[in-house]
Task: inverse folding
């Protein structure tokens, strides 16, 4: 039996949101969306507000990524929505089911020059799965349900609705649409069998598992498939931690040896983009496993590309009935390379050099981070070291900006992570460049009693630009920041606490104080500006 709901537009929207498991709202105050606030306030529905709209969308995305359910951001009309577009775009690239509800100037005066009058849809349509203006209060429950269904349907992604002023402030009466679970996409069984046979018969197979493995709740199925076929596993994005670091098939350091020596590379739940050499692994055959046909690579011709529910595909891999090659020697060789790389990393992470090298920061962090800590990367050069030296022990504990590479995610992700996990360590790793995008939202964290630890790698430069530009041109421009800037003092002024660290020996005690503080706490680490993360050009 369907439920009928009455009330103003905000109340009608909230009824549909709650039916889909939405449990909080992230926002920056704006008059166009007052009815949504009124509905939430009256119902005791939590509201978290920020100082820049992008942080609201990033917070909603963190909830969506960590909890595998819709996250909600509410933005006022015009600049409120446009300030959130980078967050929407990141959610689009990350396949995060975020719903943004926007205010909109009144339709009955459209074209007359109302405050913040703008048609948002042409801007947001290319980076959302569903974008719609809802012109009547009665239609709001239907529209919210349609938007959330689209956001949750693989390949997942954000959705957007905006409400003209007279629609959201009006009283309506409508049936609440039923919440129907999204049906899994059934893969082509012949394609699955072909892919499984390629992996089983390979002499030197490698698995690379990405964020969609976590988003699709396929972590256990991945482990079962890897164990059944005896294939070494590397991970990226939220795929990190899918196999615990101590698992005999979990690898992180021997990636170059693996990809240069593999005869079959199985990429699961992540695109064949710049992070994976655009799917070019030399002579190796590529098996690309995706959660929806739309995610099959168009620039590469894989040997096989099963598309559908990752749990179904990986379970079929584990149950492959055909012959399986012996991979013991291959795995043993990679383990030797892995162990050698770990020894080199351990030496770098213990370096006593001053100025401090980024590797030492991560060496100290490894000593204090709990296995279930949520680690957030927001930066370029400094955060690249995090990917190298930190190894998440559990799935669902790593957040980074993803392939869109948008800086400024840090404080929003921290808010969403803290709301999701009130009792865990939340650690934001931030370059001093990235600090300029969102550090003001420490005030939002402090005011709403949401403690997190922020570690800034402060080298006084835009590291990913300065070093390559000097190599290319012999000089650099627009690549310097103030050396030694006291970001910890900024955090203190915003209601948190912090300190600056200049000596390697002081790192451990500073991090301990940070995690014990119970407030937003920034450890401002002055790092060596000459130490650049080695990489090829990321501009291609």
Result:
């Amino acid at each position: 039996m369907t439920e009928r709901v009455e009330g103003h537009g905000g109340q009608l929207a909230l009824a549909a949101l709650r039916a889909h498991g939405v449990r909080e709202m992230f926002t920056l105050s704006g008059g166009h969306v007052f009815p949504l606030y009124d509905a939430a306030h009256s119902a005791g529905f939590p509201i978290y507000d920020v100082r820049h709209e992008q942080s609201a969308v990033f917070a909603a995305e963190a909830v969506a990524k960590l909890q595998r359910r819709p996250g909600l951001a509410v933005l006022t009309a015009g600049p409120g929505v446009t300030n959130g577009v980078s967050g929407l775009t990141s959610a689009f690239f990350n396949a995060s089911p975020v719903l943004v509800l926007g205010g909109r100037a009144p339709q009955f005066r459209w074209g007359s020059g109302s405050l913040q009058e703008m048609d948002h849809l042409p801007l947001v349509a290319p980076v959302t799965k569903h974008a719609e203006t809802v012109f009547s209060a009665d239609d709001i429950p239907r529209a919210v349900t349609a938007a959330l269904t689209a956001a949750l349907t693989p390949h997942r992604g954000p959705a957007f609705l905006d409400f003209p002023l007279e629609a959201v402030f009006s009283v309506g009466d409508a049936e609440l649409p039923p919440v129907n679970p999204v049906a899994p996409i059934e893969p082509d069984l012949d394609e699955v069998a072909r892919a499984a046979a390629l992996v089983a018969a390979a002499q030197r197979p490698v698995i690379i598992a990405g964020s969609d493995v976590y988003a699709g709740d396929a972590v256990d199925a991945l482990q079962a498939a890897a164990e059944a076929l005896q294939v070494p596993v590397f991970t990226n994005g939220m795929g990190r931690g899918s196999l615990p670091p101590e698992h005999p098939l979990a690898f992180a350091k021997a990636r170059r040896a693996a990809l240069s020596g593999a005869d079959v590379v199985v990429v699961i739940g992540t695109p064949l983009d710049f992070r994976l050499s655009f799917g070019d692994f030399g002579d190796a055959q590529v098996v690309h496993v995706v959660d929806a046909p739309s995610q099959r690579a168009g620039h590469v011709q894989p040997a096989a590309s099963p598309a559908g529910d990752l749990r179904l595909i990986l379970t079929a891999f584990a149950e492959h009935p055909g012959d399986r090659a012996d991979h013991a020697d291959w795995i043993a060789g990679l383990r030797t390379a892995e162990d050698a790389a770990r020894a080199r990393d351990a030496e770098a992470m213990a370096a006593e050099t001053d100025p401090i090298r980024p590797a030492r920061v991560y060496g100290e962090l490894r000593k204090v981070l709990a296995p279930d800590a949520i680690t957030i990367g927001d930066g370029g050069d400094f955060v690249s070291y995090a990917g190298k030296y930190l190894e998440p022990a559990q799935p669902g504990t790593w957040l980074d900006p993803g392939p869109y590479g948008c800086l400024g995610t840090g404080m929003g992700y921290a808010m969403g992570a803290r709301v999701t996990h009130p009792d865990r360590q939340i650690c934001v790793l931030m370059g001093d460049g990235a600090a300029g995008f969102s550090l003001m939202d420490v005030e939002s964290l402090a005011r709403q009693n949401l403690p997190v630890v922020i570690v800034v790698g402060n080298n006084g430069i835009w590291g990913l630009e300065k070093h390559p530009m000097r190599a290319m041109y012999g000089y650099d421009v627009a690549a310097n920041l103030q050396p030694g800037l006291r970001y910890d003092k900024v955090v203190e002024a915003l209601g948190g606490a912090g300190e600056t660290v200049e000596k390697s020996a002081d790192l451990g005690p500073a991090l301990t104080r940070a995690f014990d503080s119970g407030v937003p706490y920034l450890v401002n680490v002055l790092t060596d500006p000459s130490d650049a993360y080695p990489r090829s050009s990321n501009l291609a």
In short: The first strand starts at residue 3 and ends at 8. Confidence is low (pLDDT under 50) at residues 536-540. DSSP finds 22 helices and 18 strands in the chain.
